[in-house]
Amino acid sequence: MIENRRWLDILTHAVLILGVAIVAFPVWVALVASTHPAGSFATGHMPLLPGGHGWDNYSTVLGSGMRGAGSEPLWRMLINSTIMAVLITAGKIAISLTSAYAIVWFRFPLRVVCFWLIFITLMLPVEVRILPTFKVVADFGLLNSWVGLTLPLIASATATFLFRQFFMTLPDELVEAARIDGAGPMKFFRDILLPLSRTNIAALSVILFIYGWVQYLWPTLVTTDPKFYTVVMGIKRMVAVAEADPQWNFVMAAVVLAMLPPVLVVIFMQRLFVKGLIETEK
Amino acid sequence: MARIQIGALRKTYPGARADTLHGIDLSIEDGEMAVLVGPSGCGKSTLLRMIAGLESVTDGEIRIGDRLVNQLEPAERDIAMVFQNYALYPHMTVRGNLEYGLKNRRTPRAEIDARVTEAARVLEIEPFLDRKPQALSGGQRQRVAMGRAIVRKPQAFLFDEPLSNLDARLRGQMRVEIRRLQRRFATTSIYVTHDQLEAMTMADKLVVMNAGRIEQVGSPMDLFETPRSLFVAGFIGAPGMNLLPVEDLRASGADLTGLPGTTSVVGIRPEHLLPDATGAWMALHVTVDAVELVGSETLVHLGAAGLSAPLVLRQPGAARLAPGMPLRVGLPRQHLHCFDAHGLRIAQDSTDPALRELESRLDALR
Description:
The complex is a heterodimer. By secondary structure, chain A is mainly α. Chain A is 69% helix and 0% strand. In chain B, the strands form four sheets. Chain B has a six-stranded mixed β-sheet with strand order 6-7-8-3-9-10, with helices on both faces. Chain B has a four-stranded antiparallel β-sheet with strand order 2-1-4-5, covered by helices on one side. A four-stranded antiparallel β-sheet of chain B has the order 15-14-13-16, with no helix packed on it. The termini of chain B are far apart. Classes of the chains: A mainly alpha, B alpha+beta. The interface between A and B is medium-sized, with 19 and 25 residues. Chain A: It holds the Pfam family BPD_transp_1.
């Protein structure tokens, strides 16, 4: 595209600005609402400029939680969400690295069957198999536990496939050179495969962390103990208080806080992320 | 330092109808450079990979030194291999690449450093030791790959078409370089290539392979001067030997007296054709098709009624010939290679000695 006309520039900018506005406006509203006192959001006149109660709102939500909603303080939920997201990320990467390694380089009986079994799980996300999965987790006595919260979300094929694709681009000679250099399977994995997958792992971590962070349905089902509440669940509980108007200022403060970690992860991992998705270093 | 012996080695890939290698017997002496050459698919790479331990042995045996290595892992065979695409570890520095095999063998640190320094000096890659392979040119990467083999001080070097990815000029340099290093370390080496020039210039022992069999083994000059079969005759030498079916010769009116009775194809190298044969014993009337001036020499393509393939004549310097010129080329008797209907060489002394005597006198007179 070497079209270079003034009105076209203006048009493209207009479209882009409109798009940004559509995406950013709700975020702005949340930010503004989190800085106003309790009632001002429910009056029908939505303020569009920040108010002066930001500090109060945030410290209340973070520190003591909302009175009457029976909820935990938000810092607790933030920690829970972090633990869950990190466990899911680490678990998924570990399991998919090893399974992709096995599928690409080992010739074992039923290899093709294993491959297809993993492939099929692509079509069965947690939401589809939620009842049987819940039953299994409940029967193992894993309700209200970190294992129950994360394990069913760890088993999935997407990451396995990404790693498989990457491994298959590595030249056979590299594996053979390592064999001649005396690297056994474990050594090859540790000394050569892991360092080469570094950028891929980083890129996947970003995606998986956010995937883990925004989980809502599964944590809602398997946790009844407030000790395990995650932030996304917490927001829902804040909105659905019985016999009272939701306290929007607190809810919005919680929303803004919940958005922060994924934003930070993306900002700080962005370079690695892009590198991991485009770079073919061989 | 070791002798490599291969006995009745066969390879059949699972599910394949035919064998890839049909019983290879080969012995490579200590310190010798053996070059395996042949067209693609002839099994030369398979043979090399079986010696390296990267392919399993269907039948037969491979001995390196005194050890039978059929069942050993590549790392246990004490060999080093240089690959066509170098296969350097991209995330390691050059130093890391050189050290990796030694570290895995638990070589003491001081020894590793000494060997790496030595190899880097010999290969002149000292300035790059702390760079990643990505930052190196093709020739430099090739040196690092060589270095990785050298530091190990193995019993044998195996080369799998190591120069194919380099440009022609660099290939010429590296050819000499590899040969120099191989001599210096006096390590038994097996070198696979499809380039007959590489094969001719580098080999102590040249092994020509075709369709899973060894066609001929010998010194490069042996193979050049007395090819055992039509295949070797056509493969060794560039441009290739002119191969003329006897019927074609007869059709073009050549005098065939004195050729062994079983001859079916006559071969002659381009440099042995005589461009203006007044008194030659066997001559052909041809026309010049094309003239290729290479600078130091001229290649003349010749055609004639009755000949199915054009003849190539090689002359030093610039030949004063133009397309369309008629010519009478001579085929001197002592330079003819005769092959029978099976494509096998017919021993030259089966012809009348008196005729050869006469022919060489005629040559001397010209």
